[in-house]
């Protein structure tokens, strides 16, 4: 049996729900009021979430628009090498603060 922990991360709160066999087993919502970082709030929720002894748990996170960075890259040649395109996308990230700013591979 797979137990799934869902996280919804927005600018003002983090919500968590633990699902098992199609039913909710646990849920919690925490406000992000500036006294703790979103990372700290997520860590607190993960620590408080009930743990099963024998089952693995998957985590699925949905990050709201305040937590993502989108930037359009224009004027690229249509037949560009995928590795070169990956490098351009990585370099387009502004204000890198840590590993949370790593970019996924480019898909066509």
Overview of this structure, please?
By secondary structure, the protein is of the alpha+beta class. It folds into two domains: 3-66, Nucleotidyltransferase, domain 5 (2-Layer Sandwich); 69-101, no CATH class. The chain has two helices and four strands. The protein has a four-stranded mixed sheet, with helices on one face. The protein is elongated, with a radius of gyration of 18 Å. It starts with a strand and ends in a 17-residue tail after the last helix. The model is unreliable at 98-102 (pLDDT under 50).
Structure, briefly:
By secondary structure, the chain is of the alpha+beta class. The protein has helices at 38-48, 82-91, and strands spanning 3-9, 13-20, 23-31, 57-63.
Question: Would you identify the CATH architecture of the largest domain?
Answer: 2-Layer Sandwich
Within CATH, the superfamily of the largest domain carries the name ATPase, nucleotide binding domain
Shape assignment: elongated
| Distinct helical segment count | 2
Q: What's the mean pLDDT score?
A: 79
Q: Provide the helix percentage.
A: 10-25%
H/E element order: EEEHEH
Provide the number of structural domains.
2
The N- and C-terminal alpha carbons lie at a distance of: 35 Å
Radius of gyration: 18 Å
Looking across the biggest beta sheet, what order are the strands in? 3-2-1-4
* CATH class annotation of the largest domain: Alpha Beta
Q: What descriptors fit this protein?
A:
108 residues; alpha+beta; Nucleotidyltransferase, domain 5; 2 domains; 2 helices; 4 strands; elongated
């Amino acid at each position: 049996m797979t137990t799934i922990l869902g996280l919804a991360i927005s600018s003002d709160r983090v919500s968590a729900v633990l699902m098992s066999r199609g039913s909710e087993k646990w849920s919690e919502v925490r406000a992000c009021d500036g006294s703790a970082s979103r990372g700290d709030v997520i860590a607190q929720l993960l620590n408080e979430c009930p743990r099963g002894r024998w089952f693995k748990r998957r985590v699925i996170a949905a990050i709201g628009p305040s937590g993502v960075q989108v930037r359009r890259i224009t004027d690229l040649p249509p037949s560009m090498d995928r590795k070169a395109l990956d490098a351009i996308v990585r370099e387009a990230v502004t204000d890198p603060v840590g590993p949370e700013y790593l970019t996924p591979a480019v898909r066509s």
